[in-house]
Structures are given as C-alpha cells and as structure tokens.
Design a protein that fits this description.
Helix content is 8%, strand content 42%. The protein has 489 residues and is mainly beta. Strands 2, 31, 32, 33, 34 and 35 form a 6-stranded antiparallel beta sheet that branches. It has a 5-stranded antiparallel beta sheet with strand order 1-7-6-3-36, with no helix packed on it. Strands 12, 13, 14, 15 and 16 form a 5-stranded antiparallel beta sheet that branches. The longest helix is centred in the first third of the chain and has 9 residues. The structure holds fe (ii) ion. The site of fe (ii) ion has 7 residues, from strand 23.
C-alpha cells in the first residue's frame, strides 16, 4: 500500500532546529514585524509505539519571527512529563485523545484513580495575563518563553486536573481584561463551567466560576462562542456516560457516543451575570470550531464550521489517513440564528453561508470578534473528495464570494491573519500559513495578500513541519514569561 505523502512527511517525526535566516522568495511587507507562534504534534513515534490519531502526538512549538526584512525559525518540543517519558524511557506513558498507554489489567484498574492524562499541550497557543500558554483539552496548560520556546511551568484553568476537560479556544477580550473558557467537570453529577479569568492585574489573575450548568451525559465540545453580551455553548450529540470515563477502559474520545436523537442544544449565557438566558434544541450536527457570534436585535447569531455528524473524528485516525483513497468529511460554514425570547414557535434558523469546505477557521480576532460587521473568514479546505486539506480559502460572509489558494502537492495549515497597522478594510493584511510540500518532504511559510489571496512571499524550510493545528501572531513578545512567577490562573 502506498502511504500518501502527507502522512509520510506530515505525520512522522520532525527534528528540533533553529535557523537564523530562512531563505525568502518574494517581498515581505515592510510593516510585518513580530512572531507567528504555532503548536502541533512534533512526533507520532515513540520507540516502537506509534500514536493512533492526528490529535495525539508529542507537543512541538514553532516560532517564525519577522524582523528587519528577515525571517528566523525555531522549534522545540514542549518539556512535559509525556515528552520526558518518551525521550528517556521510549514509551507512551500518558493517555492522549485517542491513544492510551499499554497497561496491564492491574494498571487499568489503577487508572480509575489516576488516569494519567497527558500534559502534552499541543493544540493551541494563547497569551493570557502576559503568560504565553500552550493549550490542551486537559486543564493543564503549559507556560513557555515565546523567544526561546523553553517550557516555564504549568498553569491550570481549574483547580484539579482529575475529571476535568476544557477547550483549547478560550475567548479573550483584552478591552474588558478578561479571558473565559469552558471546563467540563465529570462526575456522578457532571457540570459545564464557564471559567472567568480577570486579567486586570497581570501579576494576580483571578479566576471564578461565571456560569454553571448541570449535565447528565456531557458532550465533546472543542470551542464555544462569544458575542458582545452572551456566551454560547453548543452541546453536540456526541456524548459520554461519565462512568465510562471514570473506568477509562478506552482512550478518551472512544468513550463518546453519537446520539443524533438528542439534537444539538444551544445554551446562551449572559456574559456579565452568568445567568442562562436560553436553551434551545435544533437538529443534530457536530462541530469543532465556532468562528464568531454577534448580537442582532432579539437574536444571537452564531457562525460555526458544522458537520452532519461526528465521523470527521474517525477520519483523523492515522490508519484511515494512511489509506490511499482516504477522505475527510467536509465541514461548511453555517450560521445559526438563536432567538433569545421563547415565543413557542421560534426555532433556531440555520443557513449554510458557503458550500466550500472549510476547517481551522480564523478571522481578525482581536478586532472583529463579536462584531456584526465581521465578514472575512479564512481556513483550510479540500479540493476534491479524497486526500487531506490541500488549499486555503477565504469566505466573505457578506458578498458570499470565495477566494482560494492552492499549489500542486501542497498541504497548507491554518491561515493566520495579520493586519496592516492603521488599516481600515478588514482584510488589509496578510495570511500566514505553514505549508507542507508532500513530494519533497519540506515545508514553507506562505505569506498571502489577504485581499487578493495571492502569494507575496514564502520562507523555505529544509525540513517538514508536521501537520499542526493552531497558532497566533504576536507583534510583540517582549514580556518574558520567565519573569512571571509560576502560579495557578
Ligand atoms: Fe481547534
């Protein structure tokens, strides 16, 4: 069987390296100064063992820095317990999304008391209260130095790391000096908790439960929405009996069951008071990513990349991606209009904004999140029925126009928008994407003009960057994370 090149090079191993002056073709915008920090898997192989799923793997941070017309690059594994066990003992020692360590029956029984959930925080990056954090769905968030990529310490969204999961997409509003994330506390009585962090004093961020909601069978929730006034939690019908997580006989995600008869449930909470304003059920669907949400009269409008079911999770098992004719279900950008007043006959209206497949959606978050005039969504996409994400797209939700960028044999990662300072137009800037060249087994950083969606420059690396997930651009990484004492957020 011929393994597709995006698996051979993109789901393998990558070396730790640093390159001072990465060769650039094209012309970099003069105003583009700062660092793109990205997170993702750096290795899928540990000794004789291989991780099983795209969402597993050992966390590796990447930094592309633009300074003085040059690009430098560095990467580094996150120095976690999971990484230490892999490096020093050559074994997978902690439970990942879809991979469990080999355990004896006795060890499985002991896992009830200590499931040894991974600290390999490989999914996203955020800066909260001047701390640069590598984020995972466990509440263990790992702090790192944004310049050296060295691991600094551990921060938690919640006080205990047992029986809790969280999202890797906290909503951050610097104008209100707050960060909010969703934590699910599993137990005989499970609870969704919206954790609020007051960041007004960066040295002493204060966390509290803003809103809670009891739940019998918690849903797998990867992100949530925020408008000016509301927080929106969508419960997809991919749910788990908490007892099966307590027993932990299977890898984490395999304990969840698709129950479409439950429908999808929108819960809307007031951002100020935490009060639940509305809960309403609509037809079953699944999603990883909220894109944006905004208030519109008596409605809250919620944009999500939606799927008809949760089979996309199965499509990301490595054995599935290794198949020559593997395919990924296509997510589409869907708009849900949720009426906040229950008048009895006011269902959630659903509209597909574009039929173009999209995943890893992004926007000019700092400026446009929660705003009704937001209209530019960037993402990765699929050109055909088979294979992996092989093009970048921009969907204009106002004009409904779609722009594409693709190159033969190339697999672009998440597009990160960087705005030109002083811009008026929402898309006046560039989109940065790390692109895997399947045939050559190398990667480059692509710089696209966000308005025309054409290439302006690329910085060529001599090695592959594995297929990753999320990152962010920071114009200034001046605050050294190392100067902030370790604590619990
Ligand atoms: Fe995500």
């Amino acid at each position: 069987m011929t393994v597709p090149d995006y698996v051979r090079h993109g789901l393998a191993d990558s070396p730790e390296t640093a390159i001072e002056d990465v060769p650039v073709t094209g012309v970099l915008p003069e105003w583009l100064e700062g660092s793109l920090l990205r997170n993702g898997p750096g290795s899928f192989q540990v000794g004789e063992q291989r991780y099983r799923h795209w969402f597993d793997g050992l966390a590796m941070l990447h930094r592309f820095t633009f300074a003085g017309g040059k690009v430098s690059y560095a990467n580094r594994f996150l120095e976690t317990r999971a990484y230490a066990a892999a490096r020093d003992e050559g074994r997978i020692a902690y439970s990942e999304f879809a991979t469990d360590p080999c355990r004896s029956l006795f060890a499985r029984a002991m896992a009830v008391f200590d499931p040894q959930v991974t600290d390999s925080a490989k999914v996203n990056i955020a800066r909260i209260a001047d701390r640069f954090l590598a984020l995972a769905e466990t509440p263990i968030q790992v702090r790192f130095d944004p310049e050296t990529l060295e691991t600094v310490g551990v921060t938690r969204w919640d006080r205990s790391d047992f029986g809790r999961m969280t999202t890797v997409h906290p909503q951050i509003d610097d104008s209100r000096q707050e960060a909010i994330n969703l934590v699910t506390r599993f137990g005989a009585s499970s609870t969704y908790v919206l954790r609020h962090v007051d960041t007004s004093d960066p040295d002493h961020p204060r966390a509290r439960d803003l809103a809670t909601k009891r739940v019998g069978e918690p849903s797998y929730i990867h992100s949530f929405g925020m408008s000016e006034r509301y927080l929106i939690v969508v419960e997809y019908p991919l749910v788990v009996n908490p007892l099966s997580l307590l027993l932990w006989l299977k890898p984490y995600i395999e304990n969840f069951r698709w129950k479409p008869e439950l429908g999808a449930r929108f819960h809307v909470f007031d951002r100020e008071t935490g009060a639940r304003v509305r809960s309403v059920t609509t037809e079953a669907f699944f999603g990883f990513h909220h894109v944006n949400a905004f208030d519109d009269g008596g409605d809250v409008v919620v944009d999500i990349v939606g799927y008809d079911d949760a089979s996309v999770i199965e499509a990301f098992y490595l054995h599935r991606l290794e198949e020559p004719d593997s395919s990924i279900p296509a997510g589409t950008l869907r708009r849900f209009r949720v009426p906040l007043v229950d008048s009895g006959d006011s269902p959630v209206e659903v509209e597909t904004l574009s039929e173009t497949p999209i995943e890893l959606p992004s926007l000019d978050y700092a400026r446009m999140n929660t705003r009704p005039d937001h209209h530019c969504v960037y993402g990765v996409s699929l050109t055909g029925e088979r294979g992996f994400y092989d093009q970048l797209v921009k969907i204009d939700t106002r004009s409904r126009e779609t722009s594409m960028w693709k190159e033969g044999g190339c697999y672009p990662g998440e597009g990160v928008f960087v705005g030109r300072p002083g811009r008026d137009a929402e898309d006046d800037g560039v989109v940065l994407s790390v692109v895997l060249e399947g045939a050559r087994g190398t990667s480059f950083l692509l710089v696209l003009d966000a308005q025309t969606f054409t290439e302006v420059a690329r910085a060529q690396l001599p090695h592959p960057v594995l297929l990753g997930y999320h990152g962010q651009f920071f114009g200034d990484v001046g605050t050294s994370a190392a100067s902030v004492p370790p604590d619990q957020v």
